[in-house]
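Dear support,

I submitted the protein below through the web form. The confirmation email said the job was done, but the results page showed an empty box. After a refresh the structure appeared. I'm attaching both so you can tell me whether what I see now is the final result or a partial one.
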Amino acid sequence: MKYPVLGVLILALMCELSASAQAVKPSRPPSAIPHANRKKVAEPVTPPTPVAASAVVPNWLPSTNSLQPSATILHDLADTKLDVRFDWAKQWLLGTAVLTLRPHFYPQSQLVLDAKGFDVKSVELMNGSRKGRDLKFSYDKRKITISLDRLYQRTEQYQVRIQYVAKPNELPKGGSEAITDDKGLYFINPLGTDKTKPRQVWTQGETEGSSCWFPTIDRPNQRMTQEITMTVESGQKTLSNGILVSARRNPDGTRTDTWKLSQPHAPYLAMMAVGDFAVVADSWRGKPVEYYVDPAYQHTAKRVFGNTPEMMEFFSKKLGVDFPWEKYAQVAVHDFVSGAMENTSASTFQQQLVQFTPRELPDVTYAGSESVIVHELFHQWFGDYVTTESWSNLPLNESFADYSELLWAEHKYGADAAAHVQQSKLRNYLEEAQMKREPLIRYRYNSQEDMFDRHSYDKGGRVLHMLRKYVGDEAFFASLNRYLVNNKLSSTELAKLRIAFEETTGEDLMWFFDQWFLQRGHPELRVTHSYENSQVVVHVQQVQDTLYQPVYRLPVTIATWNGNQATEHRILVTKADQTFRLSVNQRPSLVKFDDEGVLLAEIDETQSQEELLYQLSHARGYLQKYQAIQGLRNKSADLLVSATFRNTLNDSFWATRVAALEGLRRYRGAEGNAVRKDLQRVALNEKNGAVRATAIRVLSAFPNEDFSEVYSTALKDSSYVVTGAAIEALSHAPTATTRSQIAALQTTTNPALLTALSNYYGLNGTLDDYQWFLQRSKDAPAEVLYVMLENFGVLMQRIPPIEREKGIQRLETLARTHPQMYVRLGAYKGLHELVASMPALKATLQDIRNKEKDSSLKSMYSLIQ
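What the results page shows now:
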């Protein structure tokens, strides 16, 4: 599964909220990412994920939570057959489930099934007969406890049939940072009253949501074959796991579809989706590959999903295990409660991640869409074909899916693109590590939902990268093949992965798995070097707190450069303080520790300006160039540095050009005119929209300078990213024609422009723009509302109090009732902007805080002073 609605991005928000006791000023939500999630916006408009206030203080102590072992297996769930129909008006599922089971080892006379919030009509023993035999049962709205007719041995299979009604909306509100709701079954616009979205039904099973819509043993160490029969309206499309084996038209105008999965999978991977989808057909080696999207996006679906068959081929060959399921479908649904979900043979995606208009498509980055598609596809091997036995072992699913994003970027787009993924993922983890440091494999947690964090995703992927570089590519992929083949269609744990690598390489790798998977934290290294007597002396200190973190064993490469040649030296760091002596022929122009950027570590490496300039001009790839630019940013006034940055604007990789632009942001040196001309050239002529947008933002950072012609041209740019950046620039430097130019964009539906427009009107708007906020706060996407509502409050500061009533009511209603916590937060911040001029609102804000049920959101409220 990808990260939630928009990713685990807490730390930046907490810093934003706690940095000052003043009212929080309008700003974009913090951006990074997973598992999570990307939007089609100028810069990722990333609403925050909740976090308790106590998490601001790093807590790296061993967990005091209770031990969370794998579920004890009393029965093996062999097969599930469901026959369901939907009551759209009541938002109920009317179902019949036939479960085939057998005792796992010990004889059993009782069966306990997970079944949340049902009306259970009957429970019968079938055993091959059409007419069942009633069984006694008890039900507490969470579990059905069934008394079987006799004691069954492990060699004896039996069937139970349960008739029930699932009522997901009557379940208590749940969810987590990763999965914002846990009721399992969702009716979207069931009565068709919302004209902005279609009527849909879809499910979300991870972690234990499947038992909200069918009775099962809802644990990841169960596996079942499956058949799901859905009766739906004749015009609706259906999707489930496996293949469609029959479609029957009924006399009442409905249609009954039956989907069958012939290989077993875990119950949490079961899925259904029903709606008015356009189905775009593709194929891979004769297997159906299909893309289910809103009809409006059927003509762009292949441009978004079209690399899927190539991905399937790449991973099948790389792993030595062909894509294991009968088909692969990908469906985009509305209001999904996570970024995406890897249901077996049928992944579900949040529609904002994969549905784009033709104009929006050029702005879709690898990180914004394709990496999500890659991630869910790789889960079909790691997560679906081989499944973690417990949520404690979740990284065996998520770390691999996370790492697949780098593997595909490397294969399809090259080494620089892979390095950019590596950098982004490492940054994600290190941000989270400021708040918490947990072992990757965690047998103690408060809730299984806690496992869905940047540790399981970003840290885990980086650990796999280190393992790959340590054993080598051939051994790495041979080990993955062994792991998949030996554990296919079963559940697994960390030891099985370690054994697969040890059997392949012949090396005892307990040291690696222990320090990286079973212990918390990461190395914090201080590295210096000097030259003496034809030797480079490298001093490496591990300065992390080692009370609850290890002193790491770190195989690492150091490169020494002379002329245009690099010599690599392999060293092994094993102590907290170590010195290494490397033989060289002459004083090197550059000494680069961890020259490939493999280590999952914070590295403070002392380098001179001359070394950094050499590194930037001789670097082998993106990571070294980026590091050099970062090291030189504060010296951009130096003519040699600025000239090197300007030259780097022609680099072949777009992210390197972005870094060079950011390096010139602070430039105030003698080459001012030349720098500005280069920036304007890039803003107007660069081929990559993200680079053009960055150039505009850098130009806007030069105080008291007029680049309005560039901004006006950018308002007509084909890229929404660029247009959004121009609006942002004009927000801080409006001209006489700005208002009329921006007014032409007011009706946009693009999140980038909506966010930028709200910032512009928040800073420059008048009473004339009040109605725009009232209207767009009704139809804007949730991720835009987080920013827009605070800006609405800023605008209202400048209009007469008598005119504010409708706006205040709108903000208060959203702060109290909107289902997305980050929208409630944005509305609260909007109201808070008005407290200085309307002190009576303090009582309203206090009441909102008191009645808010989300404890983490209440913690955020306490930081807004």
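Response: this is the final, complete result; the empty box was a page-load delay. Residues 626 and 659 are 6 Å apart (CA to CA).
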